[in-house]
Amino acid sequence: MSDAILETAGLTKEFRGFVAVNDVNLSIRRGTIHGLIGPNGAGKTTCFNLLTKFLQPTRGTIRYDGRDITGMKPAEVARLGLVRSFQISAVFPHLTVLENVRVSLQRSRGGSFDFWRPDSILRSYDARARELLEDVGLSAYANLTAGELPYGRKRALEIATTLALDPVMMLLDEPTAGMTHDDVGRIVSLIRRVSAGRTVLLVEHNLTVVSGLCDFITVLARGRVLAEGDYATVARNPDVVTAYLGTEAPTEAAHG
Ligand SMILES: Nc1ncnc2c1ncn2[C@@H]1O[C@H](COP(=O)(O)OP(=O)(O)O)[C@@H](O)[C@H]1O
Ligand SMILES: [Mg+2]
């Protein structure tokens, strides 16, 4: 078993001649929380979409758990345990919080939505769904419709629906975007908790979140890898400081 669970070689994505991701070699170690950061427009989301197979690369390869997944579809890599949170745009606003998690559990077992199964079978998912809600701190919200949840709690629900798929590796794109300070704190401890025994790739804007969570960080700028290392190492890299200057201050204050 290789130390790296996800690796890219020469990963490149062009949009009509514009190179959004340029010859990126990533190596993500098993069991770590790996941060992908960089100023706006650096190519983080494009890279994320390549890794989760929502975009097909122009060039380069992606290997997951020893296998070439470059040509695979999102659902295929999800079945291998590489799961993107919000992949499912999983939250059905008119279903309750509990029902949303139950639907994800059904999907992970059966691969399809079978709303027409006997009640007895549906109820068998309830116990597991309630456990997952407990894990993400949503027990008190179980019977609310998902649409009624406050924003920060929706993100927690999305993480619960992701966990229902029992991922080996989770990819999260800016899980704290647009959150209040309290919600950010809650999601950070949630990510720390659910990362146990898993690998997490975290695309994140809020550098306080990154410094608190990530074991290893890759800094992208203009589509290329600018620096790598732990937070202290990349934060004192002059190229990183320069890349962030003029776009945004690399402090928590810039993002609430
Ligand atoms: N579908 C697309 N078509 C054309 N250009 C795109 C597309 N998606 C992203 N880009 C461009 O690629 C660059 C990187 O974007 P993105 O990956 O969203 O950056 P980040 O997430 O780091 O802010 C930006 O200049 C963006 O305008
Ligand atoms: Mg982005």
Automatic annotation (TrEMBL):
GO molecular function annotation: ATP binding; ATP hydrolysis activity
GO cellular component: plasma membrane
UniProt xrefs under Gene3D superfamilies: P-loop containing nucleotide triphosphate hydrolases
Keyword ATP-binding in annotation: yes
Organism superkingdom: Bacteria
Classification via InterPro entries: AAA+_ATPase (IPR003593), ABC_AA/LPS_Transport (IPR051120), ABC_transporter-like_ATP-bd (IPR003439), BCA_ABC_TP_C (IPR032823), P-loop_NTPase (IPR027417)
Keywords: ATP-binding, Nucleotide-binding, Transport
Iron recorded as keyword: no
ABC transporter domain residues: 6-247
Classification via PANTHER family: ABC TRANSPORTER ATP-BINDING PROTEIN (PTHR45772:SF3), CONSERVED COMPONENT OF ABC TRANSPORTER FOR NATURAL AMINO ACIDS-RELATED (PTHR45772)
Entry protein name: ABC transporter ATP-binding protein
Native organism taxonomy: Bacteria, Pseudomonadati, Pseudomonadota, Alphaproteobacteria, Acetobacterales
